[in-house]
Inverse folding.
């Protein structure tokens, strides 16, 4: 049986620790059949390596347990999106304590979490208008030429 995964979103901003410029952020919740089960925060910035979205996804813990979070970096390669799970030290979201404990790459890629992690990341990339707009902006000819 297939379940419907939807997200909501609100806009915010952060400052890049590398270039010190403000960049757009979208944050929201992920719902499975209308029930919330995760939150996310997606930063979209183009200062390094042609631009990417870095998404932290935090999953609700069981009763009495803190949430667990992992980071997914997303970039476009022609007509496809590529995704990678960096270590927590590489995540701009590590200091955002409301996300819970940031999992290591190995922990995030364990079979019990991996499918849900990439399913939410896909939903953010394909359903979030701000994230889609960012990748469309990166695809413009002037961005490809570095201008």
């Amino acid at each position: 049986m297939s379940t419907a995964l939807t997200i909501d979103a609100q806009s915010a901003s952060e400052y890049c620790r590398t270039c010190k410029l403000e960049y757009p952020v979208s944050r929201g919740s992920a719902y499975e059949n209308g029930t919330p089960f995760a939150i996310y925060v997606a930063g979209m910035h183009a200062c390094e390596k042609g631009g990417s979205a870095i998404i932290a996804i935090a999953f609700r813990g069981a009763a009495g347990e803190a949430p667990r979070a992992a980071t997914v970096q997303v970039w476009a390669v022609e007509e496809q999106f590529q995704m990678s799970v960096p270590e927590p030290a590489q995540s701009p979201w590590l200091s955002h304590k409301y996300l819970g404990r940031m999992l290591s790459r190995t922990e995030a890629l364990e079979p019990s979490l991996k499918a849900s992690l990439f399913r939410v990341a896909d939903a953010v990339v394909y359903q979030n208008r701000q994230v889609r707009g960012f990748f469309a902006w990166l695809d413009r000819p002037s961005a490809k030429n570095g201008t």
Observations:
- Residues 74 and 83 are 5 Å apart (CA to CA).
- The first strand starts at residue 5 and ends at 7.
- Residues 5-144 form one domain.
- Residues 142-147 have pLDDT under 50 and may be disordered.
